[in-house]
Amino acid sequence: SKMTPEREAAYHAGLRRSLEAGRAVLADGGAALDAVTAAVMALEDEPLFNAGRGAVYTSAGKQEMDAAIMDGRDRAAGAIAGICGPRNPILAARAVMEHSGHVFLIGDSALKFCRERGLAFEEASYFYTDARWNALQETLAMRNSGSEDQDESRKHGTVGAVARDRNGHLAAATSTGGMTAKAPGRVGDSPVIGAGTWADNATCAVSGTGHGEIFIRYAAGHEIASLMRYAGKSLEEASRAVVMDMLAPAGGSGGIIAVDHTGAVSLPFNCSGMYRGYVRGDNVLRTAIYDEPMVEFREG
Ligand code: SD4
């Protein structure tokens, strides 16, 4: 799965659609929570990204999706893990937050809850893509021959969004299929509050992508917020300290996107690339792709 120019353009277009979905909510005076929901839904709907449609496969050839959302106003949070069925896993996480009285639901009972809430469901064929299926076969073949899979595209592709609205409220959302050929039942960092997803108006909102086990062990999202809160670091200092100085040496390849209570943005990664972008209220849309310098677009 080499990155062809066509594929790169498609990633770029998907990212822009997501940014536009989030921007439209905020420009309308909407809440950060609704903006991150819309931005992540747009990426789940794209077959290219490893979330919703196009999620990766477990070693048993199933898709098991994880997602979480957090509201920085009161640290309300919702998460689901190990599900396949709801068209938009992020809506399942949000339903858990708003309607279950709990924070985290998993597996078949989570699906039952989603059905009762009336969420849209899809068949397995909707979520299927040749690219992810072939990636599974390649990873399994490599595993059988005892060689290590060096292709990061088979481990990455998680989607996330963070936002600050005009009232200063923060929110974060993350959705993923996890890692190609993961063990059945394995849950990564994305739905773990404080690891792959975190939001608190007092500090920042964070969404992570990368080697989930390490992100969980270092409580990546909460660690960034704590460095701001208790060590007086800026968002950029705190997020780089965690991504570059803690996660990377521990084997935690990946990155995070974050916004703080002042509106500062930080998007560091320690792997070969991470599609990421941001929109500001000043109508300037900036996106960055891979290791390229920031590409800037001016919108209408
Ligand atoms: C996980 N962090 O399940 C996710 C994987 C990932 O892009 O980020 N993929 O560990």
From TrEMBL:
<keyword id="KW-0645">Protease</keyword>
<dbReference type="GO" id="GO:0006508">
    <property type="term" value="P:proteolysis"/>
</dbReference>
<dbReference type="InterPro" id="IPR029055">
    <property type="entry name" value="Ntn_hydrolases_N"/>
</dbReference>
<dbReference type="InterPro" id="IPR000246">
    <property type="entry name" value="Peptidase_T2"/>
</dbReference>
<dbReference type="GO" id="GO:0008233">
    <property type="term" value="F:peptidase activity"/>
</dbReference>
<dbReference type="GO" id="GO:0016811">
    <property type="term" value="F:hydrolase activity, acting on carbon-nitrogen (but not peptide) bonds, in linear amides"/>
</dbReference>
<feature type="active site" description="Nucleophile">
    <location>
        <position position="158"/>
    </location>
</feature>
<feature type="site" description="Cleavage; by autolysis">
    <location>
        <begin position="157"/>
        <end position="158"/>
    </location>
</feature>
<feature type="binding site">
    <location>
        <begin position="186"/>
        <end position="189"/>
    </location>
    <ligand>
        <name>substrate</name>
    </ligand>
</feature>
<keyword id="KW-0378">Hydrolase</keyword>
<keyword id="KW-0068">Autocatalytic cleavage</keyword>
<protein>
    <recommendedName>
        <fullName>Isoaspartyl peptidase</fullName>
    </recommendedName>
</protein>
<dbReference type="Pfam" id="PF01112">
    <property type="entry name" value="Asparaginase_2"/>
</dbReference>
<feature type="binding site">
    <location>
        <begin position="209"/>
        <end position="212"/>
    </location>
    <ligand>
        <name>substrate</name>
    </ligand>
</feature>
